Amino acid sequence: MSNNFWSQSRLEPKRKFRWLLHFANAPQFIAKSVTKPGFSVGNSAHAFLQHTFNFPGRVTWTDINITLVDPITPDSCQSLYNIIREAGYALPTEFTPGNPRGAATVSKEKMVNSLGPMIRIDQIGTEGSDEVVESWLLRNPLITSVNFDSLDYSSDELLNITIGIKYDWAELGETSTPATLWQPRAG
Predict the structure, then answer these.
(1) How far apart, in whole angstroms, are the C-alpha atoms of residue 183 and residue 185?
(2) For 63-73, how does the pLDDT look when each residue is reduced to its tens digit (9 = 90+)?
(3) Whole-prediction pTM
(4) DSSP assignments along 150-167, one per residue
């Protein structure tokens, strides 16, 4: 019996096109791409005589980008505008005496509440959404940038929205069906 991977019919790699994004109650069909979470580990160097010794530092999670198609219904552009307004953004014209809305500012609590306390990225297997093979949960997400694409008379492409997201930390969860509760991976 051969141990070569190409002779094992049950072997199936994870595929880039098999995923679902759970983000701000957006419908699945508008998600076009998402970067998976990543991290970097800082270090601290200690010099002693002619040697340098390195020690690990803090773990910092890297930002992700989400690209959505902007359909007419539901209007993704309007939904993102509503999220930033609910997060506390006020127009300069709203700053009038006696109007508490005009003096509002964006806060972490309002941003997390308007966006949702988490973003989930599920990679699915060959059986579809009933087989989650990898699940990431991004905690306390914050929108850092939104690009509403550009308009062009010479193009018939779909209009995209690119969203930059920061988050406090990510967890790799147990794989299961989406109907079950998300559980952190043991370990």
Answers:
(1) 6
(2) 999 999 999 99
(3) 0.81
(4) ---TT--PPPEEEEEEE-
